[in-house]
């Protein structure tokens, strides 16, 4: 029986990449989106790609970051799926290589129990181009998942994970139910549930 469900945020619980929305404000959307895609497809180291993308956001008003973070388009079926999983007795958690301004705001809207993500450093109301947090590396999601399983007393067999990109691979190694959601090929190869329609409720038909 499943007891823990862990979801990625960008392009999984939310329809798009938070950092790409920020970049659009600065007119560098294409440049940042290219780096994002390279990282999500496994062609770039996640840590290096995160650092380089955030550096490009230097000078962006933090008020703009907050406004964008609070107006993101959530994925079809996200809230309904989380509600259904919790009714089945699962703890539902969000792991994101993105940012807490988005994941913490979405927590009460979508209904997950906790979020682990990164923090954009700001000074004098503007982004400094620096970032820190829980999900900085390729291995971060798997590392955090193991710690969470230990705390909750949940086994690999009792864990569901769902994501779309290469930085979700590390958590796939520690779950028996592995959902690739509209995912890159690198992740689909490691999944045992593949959903290619932008509707998270499709997960409920498969578990």
Secondary structure layout:
Layout: E1 4-7, H1 18-25, H2 29-40, H3 46-55, H4 62-69, H5 78-87, E2 91-99, H6 100-111, E3 114-123, E4 126-133, H7 140-152, E5 159-163, H8 169-172, E6 177-181, H9 185-188, E7 193-195
Parallel strand pairs: 1-2, 1-5, 2-3, 5-6, 6-7
Antiparallel strand pairs: 3-4
Helix pairs in contact: 1-2, 1-4, 2-3, 4-6
CATH 4th-level superfamily: HAD superfamily/HAD-like
Mean pLDDT: 96
Number of strands: 7
Could you estimate the helical fraction of the residues in percent?
25-40%
Alpha-carbon distance between the two ends: 10 Å
Named CATH architecture: 3-Layer(aba) Sandwich
Strand order of the largest sheet: 4-3-2-1-5-6-7
Number of helices: 9
What is the overall silhouette? globular
Report the portion of residues in β strands.
15-25%
CATH topology: Rossmann fold
What gyration radius follows from the Cα positions, in whole Å? 16 Å
Q: What ranges have pLDDT less than 50 throughout 5 or more consecutive residues?
A: none
Total individual domains: 1
Summarize the structure in words.
- This protein has one domain (4-205): Rossmann fold, CATH 3.40.50.
- It is α/β, with parallel strands linked by helices.
- The chain has nine helices and seven strands; from the N terminus they run βαααααβαββαβαβαβ.
- Helix 1 runs antiparallel to helix 2 and helix 2 (29-40) packs antiparallel against helix 3.
- The mean pLDDT is 96.
- Helix content is 39%, strand content 21%.
